[in-house]
Amino acid sequence: MLLTAGHTVLSTTARQGDLISALQFPQTPLGVLLTWTALDGDVTVDAALIWVDPACVSADILGIGLPSIQASLQPQVGDAVRIFSSTSSPRQMTIDSVLQDVPILAHGPDWSAAITYRGQILCSPGISHPGDSGAVAVDAQNRVLGMVVAGSEDTGITVVTPISAILQNSAWHGGELEILDSVPPGSTVPPFAQSQRERDPAVDLSSLPPPKQLVAQTIIDAFANAGFGVIQQVAALANAVAESDLQTTARSHPPEDSVGLFQLNRTGGAGKGYTVAQLQDPGTNIGIAIDAMSKIRAFRSASFLDDAVAVFVRAFERPQNAELEISRRQKIARTFCSNAD
User: Taking 70 as the threshold, does the pLDDT of residue 102 lie above it?
Assistant: First the structure.
């Protein structure tokens, strides 16, 4: 489940099961609306739970990696707070007061209303931006402190709902939420995503000689086991073909010194800190690529093969002539998945 500020996703006609998309990719659903807190009466929590497709999300927080699964339940005045959103870089604030009631003019997808939020944490300066509602707030130990629900530079404050109020809210029908630092293996996929997987194109490796088919299947399986869809699997495979021709021991000439299936650069790239032998191990080499691409939301949520290939090239491989390489690798990808788009 993904937690966000309720007012950001709740229209006046909101229904359980509504498709929810990320701000950056409005045409690509990442989950469905599951449940939410009421925004009338005494509002202590403005939150909604999204049943997300595991392939579209990561537990990593941009700027710090994985958060602590421990919650910060007793924030104090003067404590440092950092907020992290998908639309901007990390920012730091200081807690001015706790358990405060604050009137806010909240804006939903198709409505506006004056709401008094009860028992909130007020921070300064007011550095939250449009799109920050729902952003996670952590303390100096990277423990989750709460969720941003309002604020601006004009008001001089940022309003954060305490995580304790969120985890134990009555809207969860007697349940209590838990902070996770990873997507649990075997997570149930929302129906829309399951339907998409059933429509996923088949992968055809017949154009490769048998020894290379084994290597290609290893890449496909590794990305599939990491939760990536067929489009992402094939995009990764196409890049490996372009980089190393699926030669696990491939190594570039100095001074670059790039090694293995994805030609990981040991002098300043993803291969830095690894030995040649380590990078020539397919599991290690593929694992480094998976770890890097798991953090790239545009890759995880790509709906078209050409888009996935382009993101992989720009975000991970970064060749000198990126546009030319993107075109070349898109053609390679289509040989394995001709009906992807």
Answer: yes
**Matching residue, tokens 């129906």:** 191
**Do 157 and 250 sit in the same domain of this protein?**
no
Identify the CATH number of the domain in which residue 47 sits: 2.40.10.10
In a domain, 147, yes or no: yes
* pTM for this prediction: 0.59
3-state SS class at 62: coil
Instruction: Please give the residue that has the higher pLDDT: either 141 or 25.
Output: 141
Q: How far apart are CA 9 and CA 17, in angstroms?
A: 12
> Residues 158-182: pLDDT tens digits?
999 999 999 988 888 777 788 887 7
Burial string for 107-134 (b: 16+ CB within 10 Å, else e) reads: ebeeeeeebebbbbbbbbebbbbeebbb
Range of the domain at 289: 200-336
Q: Which residue do the tokens 């709906």 mark?
A: 303
Whether residues 315 and 215 fall in one domain: yes
pLDDT at 288 over 60: yes
- Give the three-state DSSP class for 237: helix
- Domain co-membership, 157 together with 222: no
* Enclosing H/E stretch for 254: none
Residue 269, in any domain of the structure: yes
Across the range 40-45, mean pLDDT stands at 87
DSSP character for 201?
A: P
Q: What's the structural domain count of the chain?
A: 2
Q: Distances in Å between the alpha carbon of 232 and those of 192, 241, 296, 308? A: 18, 14, 11, 6
Same domain, yes or no: 158 and 272: no
Rounded distance between C-alpha atoms, residue 195 and residue 246, angstroms: 32
Torsions phi, psi for 244 (to 5 deg) = -130, 0
Amino acid found at 33: L
158: left (phi over 0), alpha (psi -120 to 50) or beta: beta
Q: Is 80 a member of any domain?
A: yes
Q: Are residues 262 and 124 in the same domain?
A: no
